[in-house]
Amino acid sequence: MSFPPLPEPLPAPVVDNHCHFDIVRGDDELSVSDGLAKAASVGVTRIVQIGCDLPSARFAEEASREWANVIGGAALHPNDAPLQPDLEAALAEIERLVTAHPKMRVVGETGLDFFRTGEEGRALQTESFRRHIDIAKRHAKTLQIHDRDAHEAVLAVVDEEGAPERWVMHCFSGDAAFARQCLDRGAYLSFSGTVTFKNAGYLREALAIAPRDRILVETDAPFLTPHPHRGATNAAYMVPTTMRVMAEVLDEDLEALCMTVDENTDRAYGGSW
Asked: Is the pTM of this model over 0.70?
């Protein structure tokens, strides 16, 4: 695996609203400083660094303090939650981290994943999700939801617990019908490099029906590298490739769409940074 070349810069700034600078794939490694510089060089001027276990949540909190253009999120990933030896202690540490600094604005990524977690772990996974929703609501944080093969179960929990004021379906993976269900409940839909995949027409249909003020973009780097570099190691600087496909799907001027998505990001995370 290797990093793709830098894409053509965007005509206006955009935020990568879900990134993992701390995760290294194989021998491919990009320091935070280099990753931020490369991203900024192509118009990706701000980053949301997401934690998905206790070490990465601590990394996100440190990065949000150190880098002016980074905000952080902390949570137990749904696949990680059932593995905790002491779920209560782990959730207490997540709550401490998301309240440790004003730039920790996100509780996420939390949610449900029925692809990798079997029946034996789903009760704990669901309990963890409920608790993360509660943390987000009590501290007025944005909730970022991971949903893999669990669309209806995710919405059932959101309906039972009540969604926080701001919540994001990270790496949106549903069709247009599911998009409408999420949008009707007030969600932002965040599209990753998967929307560029040749076999992802259903995602492009979901994007096409989304109101312009509910659309976000992300990389989920180092994963989900957009076409035509699928399989390479992803990085925040690859947002322009996804944005260009999104503009084509929506038949929108690229610069205007960049400005809209950037404004959406500020609303989704409680203001600029």
From this structure: yes
- Is residue 91 included in any domain, yes or no? yes
State how far the Cα of 61 lies from the Cα of 64, in Å rounded to an integer.
5
Instruction: Note whether residue 104 is domain-resident.
Output: yes
Range of the domain at 196: 14-268
Residue 3 lies in a domain: no
Burial zone of 244 (CB within 10 Å; 0-12 exposed, 13-18 middle, 19+ buried): middle
Q: State which H helix or E strand residue 243 sits in.
A: helix 239-250
How many structural domains comprise the chain? Answer: 1
Give me the pLDDT at residue 63, please.
Answer: 97
CA distance 3 to 54: 27
Percent of the chain with pLDDT over 70: 100
Q: Quick: pLDDT tens for 35-90.
A: 999 999 999 999 999 999 999 999 999 999 999 999 999 999 999 999 999 999 99
Percent of the chain whose pLDDT exceeds 90:
95
Question: Is 273 part of any domain?
Answer: no
CATH of the domain at 82: 3.20.20.140
Interhelix angle 239-250/254-268, nearest 10 degrees: 110
Q: C-alpha dihedral over 69, 20, 112, 166, to 10 degrees?
A: 0
Q: How far is CA 126 from the centre of its chain?
A: 19
CA pseudo-torsion sign 176, 178, 181, 187: negative
